[in-house]
Design a protein that fits this description.
The complex is a heterodimer of chains A (250) and B (541).
Chain A lengths: L9 E12 L2 E13 L4 E5 L6 H8 L7 E6 L2 E2 L5 H11 E4 L11 H12 L2 H21 L15 H14 L4 E5 L7 H17 L3 E6 L10 E6 L2 E6 L13
Parallel strand pairs in A: 3-8, 3-9, 6-7, 7-8
Antiparallel strand pairs in A: 1-2, 1-4, 4-5, 9-10
Helix pairs in contact in A: 3-4, 3-5, 4-5, 5-6
Chain B lengths: L1 H12 L1 H38 L3 E5 L5 E2 L1 H12 L3 E18 L2 E12 L4 H4 L9 H5 L32 H25 L2 H17 L7 H4 L3 H18 L15 E5 H4 E3 L5 E3 L6 E7 L7 E12 L4 H4 L2 E5 H8 L2 E2 L4 E4 L1 E6 L5 H11 L5 E5 H44 L1 H9 L4 H32 L1 H12 L6 H4 L10 H28 L2 H6 L2
Parallel strand pairs in B: 4-10, 5-9
Antiparallel strand pairs in B: 1-13, 1-14, 2-12, 3-4, 3-8, 3-13, 5-10, 6-7, 8-9, 11-12
Helix pairs in contact in B: 1-16, 2-14, 2-16, 2-19, 3-13, 6-7, 7-9, 14-19, 16-19
The chains are: A alpha/beta (250), B alpha+beta (541).
Bound molecules: adenosine-5'-triphosphate (ATP) and magnesium ion.
The site of magnesium ion has 3 residues of chain A, from helix 1.
Chain lengths: 250, 541
């Protein structure tokens, strides 16, 4: 089944997902074929309820598809054991969500370090903590939260929380960032800032980003935009080259 | 690492879980207190029983006893000499004790024990329980001049002083003798003047009684007038045979002489009131009358006067209220258990003290082989007190089971609270999964949380329990003061204080048990958390 596109970072083949509610089957994805090139910023747009989040969960191995395959760096990942998938998420994927999903008991700094704490045992983490503290501080500076290290999520604004979430997604050095409507809960201005940040990370650090969004307008900054309609993908706009990529409108 | 961090944070922020652990805390504290007090009681009791009884006892099944204790002891030494530290022969018979207190004839049923005062303390803690410091060093059946303890030497300084004991000894005896002579002479002068004929005879009876018994302070009229017939039969009945046997030679002067010595069980000669003060009925220096069954067939009563030389206070009320010790030779003669021509007597038991570490049961089995079972009974001290100790042991076990159930019930409280917390934390669990936390990790968080709660709960419980045990008597006093009801009545237990022994092993078990329950209670919620579907957890609002 491997299509052999070795240069693709992530690809799906005939991905299907349906939910069962009692005897009723709700088909959400009806065969999604998607390929993500390394360094690409791919936007997935679609109406509410079209299955964008579901697709992203499948890509991030948080859920198992009803049929079809997901390949990461040429290897199939949807049928891995749960512990292998946990490792994969921890080491290779970063995820950000519409409602930020920070841990309320931890402060900004600890939230950002959480993936690293998960990766290593207590001992392993403690021996490396100086290095990671520096990395986390640097990342928080990059996302513009250097002054908010000791604050709890409840003490941060939406935009600040999303920046913290981005820092957390990046701290472990992922190959792929999966973003599910990162600006959905933010006002336009803040949303633009977040998008700008993601754009910058994409271009400066060559980070591959798959971003789901409602908003076709925001999709305009992406390398490529695909639309999810009736459980299938349709190319919404031909990919632009990097040089001609539009900057965010003011 | 995140597990530890989250556990700590949950611990600090979820007060509801801390509330659920309070029952564990209380359970642990109660268990520690109850176990400490119970083991204090049993240890105290065992020590005392063991101090009173010797390790192994060879006793005759018949009342007559067996002849020649020295030969018996030789035999015992031959088979089990290596294990034995000391032996002493004793004669134990039920007897009747009579003494006079303010005109009342007080009679008590006692266990009369004839002991060899030189060897008795080799086999038991007998001497330690005496009230004269010199008697505690080397016991003597001679009355001491004075110097008896006025403060209970086994209790702390907070025990009520025994002021009456100040005069105990020869001083008391001389006072009493002086007073008695006064009384007697005043009767003899006053009575005939008041009522001539009837009292003439009564005075005669009284004089003869007084003379024959020699010292009982018989004074008040009721004994002599209306109730004369009955009292005469009870009082002089047992006296007369002895009076006949007593040496009729020189006149006995109670101010200078004493009868054979006798050590009286503390509770026989005193009564403890509500405040813990001992009110003495008799003191060392007073005389008492002992009536024993003789060795004849059928046994007849044989009486003799003894002078109290000390009190025996083992603090085991059962023993203190029944034991009376007299010199073994005197008792043997009194009961006809002594062969004048050979100088060898009969005894009915031999008390054996074992060397430290020797096994009583082993010695018992060895001795059983040489002494015919029909005639001799060989027992260890545990055998003698077996039922009592077993009953106490059983009580402890049942109490522990019940208390542990309480902690187990608390476990369900933890379980419910934890399930709630897991539900509340559903989204966090989804987040952790999206960050790559494994199922084991998620489970670890909640198991670790349970363990930490258990540790906090049982740790606080342990501290509470230990503080409680440490201040047990103060707390008991306080509760008594608040409720007006004595929590701990020393007159029942003959302990001044509630004894408590904290056994570290017991604490380890209790704390370990509480921890185990807390962890067990968190297994189900932890499993639930681990099994949560990441997407559903993330969607949870
Ligand atoms: N566990 C589930 N059981 C049943 N139906 C589900 C389940 N999860 C999702 N669905 C359905 O799948 C469809 C797609 O949901 P999804 O959350 O992926 O939409 P979406 O495109 O992300 O929408 P939005 O833009 O509003 O976030 C919806 O119609 C939803 O009702
Ligand atoms: Mg969605």
């Amino acid at each position: 089944m491997n299509k052999g596109l070795g240069n693709m970072l992530l690809e799906t083949v005939g991905l299907k997902k349906s939910f069962h509610k009692g005897k009723v089957t709700i088909p959400v994805l009806a065969g999604v074929d998607l390929s993500v090139r390394p360094g690409e910023l791919l936007a997935i747009i679609g109406q509410s309820g079209s299955g964008k989040s579901t697709l992203l969960h499948l890509l991030g191995t948080l859920d198992a598809p009803t049929a079809g395959e997901v390949h990461f760096e040429g290897r199939r990942i949807d049928n891995l054991s749960s512990s292998r998938r946990d490792k994969l998420r921890n080491r290779h994927f970063g995820m950000i969500f519409q409602s930020y999903h920070l841990l309320p008991e931890l402060n900004t700094f600890e939230n950002v370090l959480a993936p690293l704490m998960i990766r290593y045992s207590t001992w392993g983490y403690m021996t490396r903590r100086h290095k990671y503290r520096d990395a986390a501080t640097e990342l928080l500076e990059i996302v513009g939260l250097g002054h908010r290290l000791k604050h709890r999520p409840s003490e941060l604004s939406g935009g600040e929380m999303q920046r913290a979430a981005i820092a957390r997604a990046l701290v472990a050095g992922p190959d792929l960032l999966l973003a599910d409507e990162p600006t959905g809960n933010l006002d336009h201005q803040t949303g633009q800032e977040i998008l700008e940040l993601l754009c910058r990370l994409n271009s400066e650090q060559n980070l591959t980003i798959v971003m789901v969004t409602h908003d076709t307008g925001i999709g305009a900054i992406a390398d490529r935009v695909v639309r999810l309609v009736d459980g299938r993908l349709a190319e919404a706009r031909a990919p632009e080259t990097r040089t001609t990529k539009k900057r965010i409108p003011a | 690492m995140y597990k530890l961090l989250l556990c700590c944070r949950y611990l600090r922020t979820r007060y509801i879980a801390l509330a659920s652990i309070i029952s564990v805390t209380l359970g642990v504290a109660t268990m520690i207190v109850v176990n400490s007090v119970m083991s204090g009681f049993t240890t105290e009791m065992r020590n005392r029983i063991h101090g009173i009884l010797s390790d192994v006892i060879v006793e005759s099944r018949g009342m007559d006893g067996f002849y020649d204790p020295d030969r018996h002891m030789q035999q015992i030494a031959e088979v089990a000499g290596d294990y034995i530290e000391g032996m002493t022969p004793t004669v134990i018979v039920p007897a009747m004790l009579n003494f006079e207190f303010r005109g009342h004839n007080i009679a008590r049923q006692v266990n009369l024990i004839g002991i060899d005062e030189r060897t008795q303390s080799q086999v038991s803690d007998f001497e330690e329980y005496l009230q004269h410091p010199e008697n505690r060093k080397a016991m003597s059946f001679q009355l001491r001049e004075g110097g008896y303890d006025t403060q209970d030497h086994q209790a702390g300084p907070e025990a009520q002083p025994r002021t009456q004991m100040e005069t105990a000894g020869w001083e008391h005896r001389r006072n009493w003798a002086k007073w008695q002579t006064m009384q007697t002479s005043s009767y003899q002068t006053r009575w005939p003047v008041e009522k001539q004929v009837a009292q003439q005879q009564a005075a005669g009876t009284q004089a003869s009684v007084t003379q024959s018994s020699g010292q009982l302070p018989i004074q008040p009229p009721p004994l002599l007038s209306s109730a004369e017939k009955t009292t005469a039969s009870t009082i002089s009945g047992p006296i007369d045979p002895f009076a006949a046997a007593a040496p009729q030679g020189p006149v006995f002067d109670p101010a200078k002489e004493q009868h054979p010595g006798l050590v009286l069980g503390f509770a026989l000669g005193s009564i403890r009131d509500d405040t813990g003060t001992d009110k003495f009925l008799v003191l060392p220096g007073d005389d008492v009358k002992i009536t024993v069954p003789t060795n004849g067939r059928p046994p007849t009563a044989s009486s003799c006067d003894f002078t109290i030389v000390d009190f025996y206070e083992s603090k085991m009320s059962e023993y203190d209220a029944h034991f009376v010790f007299v010199p073994i030779r005197k008792l043997q003669k009194l009961r006809g258990m002594y062969n004048e021509s050979t100088g060898i007597g009969w005894v009915n038991s031999i008390q054996i003290k074992l060397k430290p570490g020797a096994d009583g049961n082993e010695v018992r089995e060895k001795l059983k082989k040489i002494f015919p079972h029909q005639l001799y009974n060989v027992v260890t001290w545990q055998d003698k007190q077996g039922p009592l100790l077993a009953a106490v042991q059983m009580e402890i076990v049942i109490l522990n089971i019940l208390l542990f159930m309480i902690i187990a019930v608390a476990g369900f409280g933890i379980l419910a609270t934890f399930l709630m917390i897991v539900v509340e934390k559903t989204r966090d669990i989804g987040i952790l999964k999206s960050l790559g936390a494994s199922r084991r990790g998620i489970m670890g968080i909640f198991l670790g949380y349970g363990l930490m709660l258990g540790a906090v709960g049982s740790g606080v419980g342990m501290a509470l329990g230990l503080v409680f045990v440490d201040n047990l008597n103060r707390i008991a006093d306080f509760v008594s003061w608040v409720t007006g009801q004595p929590v701990f009545d020393p007159s029942i237990y003959y302990f001044e204080k509630i004894p408590a022994i904290v056994d570290p092993l017991m604490i380890v078990w209790v704390v370990f048990g509480a921890l185990a329950i807390a962890v067990l209670a968190s297994v189900l919620p932890a499993l639930r958390a681990a099994m949560l579907h990441p997407v559903e957890a993330l969607r949870y609002e």
